[in-house]
Design brief:
It is a single chain. By secondary structure, the chain is mainly alpha-helical. The protein has one domain (2-278). Helix content is 76%, strand content 0%. It has helices at 2-12, 14-19, 25-46, 57-83, 86-93, 96-107, 114-132, 142-163, 171-193, 203-227, 233-239, 242-253, 261-278. Helix 1 packs antiparallel against helix 10, helix 4 runs antiparallel to helix 5 (86-93) and helix 4 (57-83) crosses helix 9 (171-193). The longest helix has 27 residues, at 57-83. The radius of gyration is 18 Å and the shape is globular.
């Protein structure tokens, strides 16, 4: 349990660190994928775990597709952090369970129960509360940031739904392949759009980038997957919401970001509906 809670707390601080890195979101996502995959490979070697053994071509293909979705998910989430408050970006991102519920009848052939539909409606009402507190002008960027958060949530939902079709696979192996695939998919775009000659990265920003890659990706994923076999699905569902709750609290206490009563109501509706739906 302590490992899982620690991983959630680490995930909840990623927005604070990304805010301090003055690099394109795609470059940050590329570095995160490379460093996270490298850390997990080193951890697997240290623990003498075998990677990529006996995987079929279809499994490798699905893992690669998940990696591409994961990379796009990071890019849009980091853009959301830049354009709106961390609280609003996080809450829009946590509509992912609602998006998965919407897509499950088409992808997984699941029927939507009355409970799921009610949770879905409550979640979108909560999102409306959050959107209503954002600046009305697109020049302010708030609504654009929420839009990026919703796109990031859609790609995360795509990762989860795609992974539903994977057979039994060791979590460290799947993580290494997906993180590496995310970096491989982002690399051509970064090379084509980034002016490396004019890029200036100070030691402080380089340090933040390393923390995001090693701690927020490698270490956090390792703790998360190490704890999963020891926990019930219900406990995982409940304690997963430490991440957004901690992110919202930090945005208020550390960055002094505005947080209205309507945003608080929206947070309770979004996170409460998502949790109720999963349970």
């Amino acid at each position: 349990m302590p490992q899982f809670i620690l991983s959630m707390l680490i995930f909840g601080t990623v927005g604070l660190f990304v805010r301090g890195i003055d690099l394109p979101s795609s470059t940050i996502a590329l570095a995160r994928g490379l460093m996270g995959a490298a850390f997990l490979v080193c951890a697997a070697l240290a623990l003498r775990k075998s990677l990529c053994v006996g995987l079929s071509r279809s499994t490798l293909t699905r893992l690669f597709v998940s990696g591409v979705f994961l990379g796009l998910n990071w890019i849009f989430l980091f853009e959301a952090y830049r354009h709106t408050t961390i609280a609003a970006a996080t809450l829009s991102y946590y509509t992912a369970p609602a998006i998965m519920t919407l897509l499950s009848p088409f992808v997984l052939k699941e029927k939507l129960s009355t409970k799921k539909l009610v949770c879905l409606a409550v979640c979108f009402v909560g999102m409306g509360c959050v959107v209503g507190t954002e600046p009305g002008s697109l020049a302010d960027g708030g609504l654009i940031g929420i839009g990026f958060g919703l796109i990031a949530a859609s790609f995360y939902a795509a990762v989860v739904l795609n992974n539903k079709f994977l057979g039994p696979i060791e979590p460290t192996t799947s993580s290494v392949i997906q993180l590496g695939s995310a970096a491989a998919a982002i690399l051509p775009y970064v090379l084509a759009t980034t002016d490396f000659a004019s890029m200036s990265v100070g030691m402080d920003q380089l340090g933040l980038l390393i923390v995001v890659g090693i701690v927020h990706t490698g270490v956090a994923y390792f703790l998360y997957f190490s704890a999963l076999p020891k926990l019930s699905t219900q406990r995982v569902s409940i304690f997963s919401y430490i991440d957004p709750a901690f992110a919202v609290v930090l945005s208020i206490l550390v960055l002094a970001e505005p947080f209205t009563a309507m945003t608080l109501i929206g947070a309770f509706l979004i996170l409460g509906a998502a949790l109720a739906s999963e349970l």
